Amino acid sequence: MAADQVFHSRSLGIPSEGVKDQYADGKAAKTWNKFIGDSNQRTQNYKDFLIGLLKNNGCKTVLDAACGTGIDSMMLVNEGFKVVSVDASDKMLKHALKARWEKRKNPKYDDWVIEEANWETLPQDIETFLPDTQFDAVICLGNSFAHLLDEYGDQRMQKLCLSNFAKCLKPGGLLFIDHRNYDAMINTGATPGHSIYYNCKYPVDIKTSVLVVRGRAELVALDYCIDTSNDGSKQEKSEFRLCYYPHKLSTFTSMLDEAFDNRARHHIYGDFQPLDKVPVPAFYIHVMQKTKN
Ligand SMILES: C[S@@+](CC[C@H](N)C(=O)[O-])C[C@H]1O[C@@H](n2cnc3c(N)ncnc32)[C@H](O)[C@@H]1O
């Protein structure tokens, strides 16, 4: 493989200055809804896990910090949660805004707030449209957090963003954040094609490239090829690349604990199950409970 295929950290068409939005060329955003389906295609395991923990902990208000096209947010709105959805990509938000418009006759959707915000400035961004607001829960799911690449080589932006998530929570509030099992992906050089989050009805091929610098895996590029030609519409293949920071479970776990001053309760699940039940999970899901005082 040519080196430049690996070294392009963003899709073509994205300016080198400004918001680091991997969706800015619109390619992935356009296919995303087809790829992950609608809220009804979320897997039952995922729904039971997320909604179960939110309800058992009395959560009513949820900040979806990486709402993308709004699929998870809609699942939560349908379940009666008060949802605020933010994302840094206006190309992705466009689809969420359109979905809200299409649901405008459903009163459940009257209070659904959708705004642009960046994890790097999250509390300040939220303050501009919802002053003095903290949430019962913050979710950053679907392998979203790994979109933040390590520009400085010391994960300082990751640490800042994680502490911003903690700041957005009420005392006792829950943060749900996940990452793929990069430990396994680095070892095998492969990415599981099926998702634990959605039932995708199209064939998906994911080509995995791992960039190793001085013995350390620093970037994983996933080239998605989704063949949507079997849905009766005109033949279509969608190809796009997304790049991720390959979080190792142990390092990410410590970084997350530090973001909560080492005082939060921290549970880790593999594919929504206790870790000892899944030998090699595709995803790790961390649930942090902020201390009550
Ligand atoms: C894989 S998509 C997931 C969206 C949604 N949670 C889902 O499962 O469909 C990741 C999202 O994270 C957003 N994102 C990446 N970096 C961000 C940042 N610094 N601040 C806010 N959102 C960001 C992207 O714009 C993108 O919409």
TrEMBL record:
Please identify the protein, giving its name as recorded.
Answer: Glycine N-methyltransferase
Q: Which organism is it from?
A: Bombyx mori (Silk moth)
Gene of this entry: 101738705
Binding of S-adenosyl-L-methionine, residues: 23, 32, 42, 66, 87, 118-119, 141
Single GO molecular function: identical protein binding
User: What family does the entry list?
Assistant: Belongs to the class I-like SAM-binding methyltransferase superfamily. Glycine N-methyltransferase family.
Reaction(s) this enzyme catalyzes, per UniProt: glycine + S-adenosyl-L-methionine = sarcosine + S-adenosyl-L-homocysteine + H(+)
Give its E.C. classification number.
2.1.1.20
Family matches, as CDD domains: AdoMet_MTases
Q: Which Gene3D superfamilies match?
A: Glycine N-methyltransferase, chain A, domain 1, Vaccinia Virus protein VP39
One record GO biological process: sarcosine metabolic process
One of the record's GO cellular component terms: cytosol
Subcellular location(s) of the protein: Cytoplasm
